[in-house]
Amino acid sequence: MVASRREAARWWMALIALPPLLATALAVNGWRNIEELSRRGEWQVQPVAADQVFAGAGWRLEQARLIGDGRDTKQIFPGQMRLVIIRLSAEAKRDIGEDWGQCQLRLTDGKGHDWTPLDVILSSDLSRDLDPRAEPLPGCSIASLHPPAKGESMLIEEKFVLPADAVPHLAVRLSFASTRPHAISIPLALK
Amino acid sequence: MIRFLATIIGILTAAALLQVFQATTPGYAQLTGPILTSGAQKDTVSSQTFSVRIDKAVQAKTLVLKRFSRTIERQTQGTWLVVSAELWAFQETMPLAGASIRGASGRLYVQTHRADAAPQLLSLKKVQPGLPTTGILVFELPEEEATDMTLILSKQASPRLEDEVHVHLDRGMIESRDKVEPGNGGI
Amino acid sequence: MKRPNVLNKAGKAARARVLAGIGGFLAAGLSLGLSIFESRNPGEIAHALPGTRINADRWGVTLHAATVATTMPNGSRLTPGKRAVVVNLTIENLTSQSSNLYGEALALANITGASRPQFFLDRDQEILWDLQPAMPEEVSAVWEVPMTQALLASLDVTVIGAVFKRADNLYAAPGWFTGSAVAQVDLPIAENGTGAMTRDTR
Prior knowledge:
Largest sheet of chain B: 5 strands, mixed
Number of domains of chain B: 1
Distance between the termini of chain B: 82 Å
CATH topology of the largest domain in chain A: Immunoglobulin-like
Strand order of the largest sheet of chain A: 1-9-8-5-6
Helix content of chain B: 10-25%
Low-confidence stretches of chain A: none
CATH class of the largest domain in chain A: Mainly Beta
Low-confidence stretches of chain B: none
Protein name (chain C): DUF4352 domain-containing protein
Shape of chain A: elongated
Oligomer: heterotrimer
Protein name (chain B): DUF4352 domain-containing protein
Radius of gyration of chain A: 25 Å
CATH topology of chain B: Immunoglobulin-like
Mean pLDDT of chain B: 94
Largest sheet of chain A: 5 strands, mixed
Structural class of chain B: mainly beta
Number of domains of chain A: 2
InterPro entries (chain B): Immunoprotect_excell_Ig-like
Keywords (chain B): Signal
Number of helices of chain A: 3
CATH architecture of the largest domain in chain A: Sandwich
Distance between the termini of chain A: 89 Å
Radius of gyration of chain B: 23 Å
Organism (chain C): Neorhizobium alkalisoli
CATH architecture of chain B: Sandwich
CATH class of chain B: Mainly Beta
Order of helices and strands of chain A: HEEEEEEHHEEE
């Protein structure tokens, strides 16, 4: 009788422990998912500060060109269509290694619109059209495979097609798998 | 004895209840399926992330293409359907990887690779926010499927929890021709 | 009076355990033996004649003829040191969706070292992409085989079926899964004069 009473107590304990254990398991799982999700998105975007080191490098906007309205080159694109070419310089402050993996470089207008760069083939074709002699500069994802050594710097070029009315509000937003959810933003100040 | 019977009945009830739960729970694939927006051919059909306006739909027996400045003709035992459309992306740059026609029988006809030489294919373009993008889509399907068609478009080939736009094609608005030759200016 | 009883009880328990053990091993051994037997002697596959339509669940297949060629049907070159075994067939997509997975439906049983087949649409000699549902097409399936591989007078083509699951085990999504062989066809290899053939005639 004593044994069975102890058994009954254990049985009740197990039953009562079940709901909190289930809740804990759900919470732990949920927390893991939230963490993974936060590493995918750019939830914390900050304007880049002078001397700021981001993903092991200092970032500066080297050049931003607006093509299609006849001012930079003679080309006039139909309607609202414009080509924006940006060059970022990155100076490695430490050994970068794999830290530039899954690079995400986009243009944003602060109104919830995102433009992703043109693909590599189209981008190099355009580079050759604009300057047949110069070697096309690498894009962000190619650069991430061969990042500069510590103390050295490199230029990254990306091209975007977007409407003219977005041009005055554009900023570059940059993040890597290693930095997300943090991203930096650099205004282009194009007119 | 009564206790024993109660246990048996309890187990059977639990099993039946679980069976009901299992049978009525929607599958994972269904829960994470596409988010549908439907509309008619004459309208601009807008989802949360992009919108579509059908410009023209042409049905033909022969598809005329140019490859390396040589003209080639492609025949089919069914019919070619060439749709020209204008797309708007609202937030992000987007490809249009998913494009198919649901025919009269409910079968799904994915856009054909046999027309890859055609110019202005929407499947090779990217839609940039703020810039309307026009282009064409080419399908190959049996004649009897063409009596009732719905165009299905999405960013990915098989969208999961992403927008999918359905445009019901109006038979009266589909042009019928002998040959259709997609060009740089459309069809 | 007590001792034999206890002994008897203990003996009974032990015997039950030994019996259960033997039963378990027997069951496991039988199951293993059966699966080995089944994999060694796959059920007799139905033989079909060339020209008859074979229902391979996902695909409707009619095999017509086999030839040996030195180029691809679209004129492109073969891998050096290889020749092409070409099978002409009519194939129909019986499912409700366009698909390009028809390569899984055919296998060469009496040739080793063959590549995965490439398919060409006979209508225009170009690569066959998606096969559209309810649109049977005349196509050529091409296997590249090493020159050193001797060819018999006929090609043993196995047509493989597929299994449709309304809800798969992982995502509860409907889908097609590889099935077992549904038919075997002896296709005589026709001379077509496009290349010197070293044929093993038995």
